[in-house]
C-alpha cells in the first residue's frame, strides 16, 4: 500500500493519496484526522460517516471534543455554513448528544457555551423534539443563554417545527421556571432582555408570553413613563411579535414625544436596535411601515 502518513512537527498527519483506500485507515487515526477525513470524504455519504462515527463513539471525552473542534475548523476552511446531507448531519449530532445527555445535570456554565454556542450550531438543524426535551432547564441564566445563542446561530436553517418545538419545550419551560424562582435573568431593559433570553425565537412568542416571563415588559401597555430608549426597544419587540395592536400602542406613545430632540433620540435608539440584528431583514415585518 502506498504510504499514507507523514510526520510534521512530531505529530502524525494524514495525507490521502489518490489510490489509498482512506476509509480503511479509520481505526488508525486520531480525532483531528478523523474530523478532517469526515469533512473531506464523508459529508456526502452516510456509510462513510457512520464508519467514522462508530470510531468516534469509542473515544474518551477529551478526544470527542478534539474531533468536534477540528471538524468545525475544517468546515470553516471549506466555507461550509450548512452541512449538505441531512442524514449525515443527524448521524453526527446523534453521537454527540448521546454522549452529552447523561451529563447535562453536571455541566458547568462554560460547557453549555462550549458545546451549544461553539461546537454544535452546524448540527442543530437536525435536532429533534426528543433531544430538545432532554435539555436541562434546571440551569443558570448564563447556561441557558449559551444554549440559546447556539440555536440563534442555527435559526435560519431550523425547520419551522423545530423552532416551535424549541420555543415551546425549552424556552417557555425555562423562563416559566424562572418566574417561580423570581429570577429575571439580568433585566437591564426591554431590548437587552429579549435579545439575551429569546433572541430570534421572539418570532415564536406572544406578548402574553412576555408578560408572564418578565413583568417589567408590561409597562408598555399601562400608563407608566417610557424613556425614548424603551419606546425604541418596544417598537422592535412588537414588530418581531407581529403584534400590530402593541405596535400602535407604542407609536401612540412615540407621537406624544414632546420635542424634536426626544424624537431624534428615539430614532437613534431605533436605528441602533436594528443594527443589533435581533431579527434579520428577511424577518422584519412590514408592520413597521404601516401608515
Quick structural overview:
By secondary structure, this protein is mainly alpha-helical. Helix content is 56%, strand content 3%.
Main beta-sheet strand count, sense and barrel state: 2 strands, antiparallel
* Gross geometry: elongated
Query: Given the helix and strand composition, which structural class is it?
Result: mainly alpha
Helix proportion range: 55-70%
What gap, in angstroms, lies between the N and C termini?
74 Å
What features would you describe in this structure?
- The protein has 291 residues and is an all-alpha fold.
- Among the domains are: 1-80, no CATH class; 193-291, no CATH class.
- Helices cover 56% and strands 3% of the residues.
- The chain contains 13 helices and 2 strands; from the N terminus they run E-E-H-H-H-H-H-H-H-H-H-H-H-H-H.
- The radius of gyration is 23 Å and the shape is elongated.
- The relative contact order is 0.06.
- Residues 1-20 and 277-291 have low confidence and may be disordered.
Supply database-style keywords.
291 residues; mainly alpha; two-stranded antiparallel ribbon; 56% helix; disordered N terminus; disordered C terminus
Write the layout of secondary structure elements.
Elements: E1 5-8, E2 11-14, H1 31-42, H2 46-56, H3 61-77, H4 86-100, H5 109-119, H6 129-133, H7 141-154, H8 160-181, H9 190-197, H10 207-213, H11 228-240, H12 244-255, H13 260-275
Antiparallel strand pairs: 1-2
Amino acid at each position: 500500500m502506498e504510504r499514507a502518513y507523514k510526520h510534521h512537527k512530531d505529530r502524525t498527519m494524514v495525507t490521502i493519496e489518490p489510490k489509498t483506500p482512506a476509509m480503511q485507515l479509520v481505526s488508525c487515526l486520531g480525532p483531528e484526522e478523523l474530523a478532517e477525513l469526515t469533512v473531506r470524504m464523508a459529508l456526502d455519504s452516510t456509510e462513510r460517516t457512520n464508519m467514522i462515527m462508530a470510531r468516534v463513539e469509542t473515544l474518551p471525552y477529551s478526544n470527542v471534543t478534539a474531533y468536534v473542534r477540528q471538524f468545525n475548523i475544517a468546515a470553516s476552511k471549506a466555507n461550509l455554513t450548512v452541512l449538505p446531507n441531512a442524514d449525515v448531519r443527524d448521524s453526527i449530532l446523534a453521537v454527540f448528544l448521546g454522549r452529552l445527555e447523561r451529563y447535562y445535570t453536571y455541566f458547568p456554565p462554560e460547557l453549555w457555551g462550549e458545546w451549544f454556542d461553539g461546537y454544535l450550531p452546524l448540527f442543530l438543524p437536525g435536532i429533534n423534539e426528543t433531544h430538545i426535551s432532554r435539555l436541562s432547564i434546571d440551569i443558570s441564566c448564563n447556561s441557558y443563554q449559551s444554549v440559546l445563542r447556539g440555536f440563534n446561530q442555527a435559526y435560519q436553517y431550523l425547520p419551522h417545527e423545530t423552532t416551535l418545538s424549541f420555543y415551546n419545550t425549552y424556552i417557555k419551560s425555562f423562563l416559566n421556571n424562572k418566574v417561580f424562582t423570581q429570577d429575571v435573568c439580568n433585566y437591564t431593559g426591554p431590548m437587552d432582555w429579549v435579545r439575551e433570553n429569546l433572541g430570534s425565537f421572539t418570532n415564536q412568542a406572544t406578548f402574553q408570553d412576555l408578560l408572564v416571563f418578565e413583568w417589567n415588559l408590561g409597562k408598555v401597555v399601562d400608563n407608566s413613563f417610557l424613556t425614548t430608549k424603551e419606546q425604541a426597544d418596544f417598537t422592535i419587540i412588537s414588530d418581531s411579535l407581529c403584534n400590530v395592536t402593541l405596535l400602535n400602542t407604542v407609536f401612540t406613545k412615540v407621537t406624544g414625544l414632546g420635542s424634536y430632540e426626544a424624537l431624534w433620540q428615539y430614532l437613534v435608539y431605533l436605528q441602533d436596535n436594528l443594527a443589533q440584528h435581533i431579527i434579520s431583514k428577511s424577518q422584519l415585518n412590514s408592520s413597521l411601515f404601516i401608515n
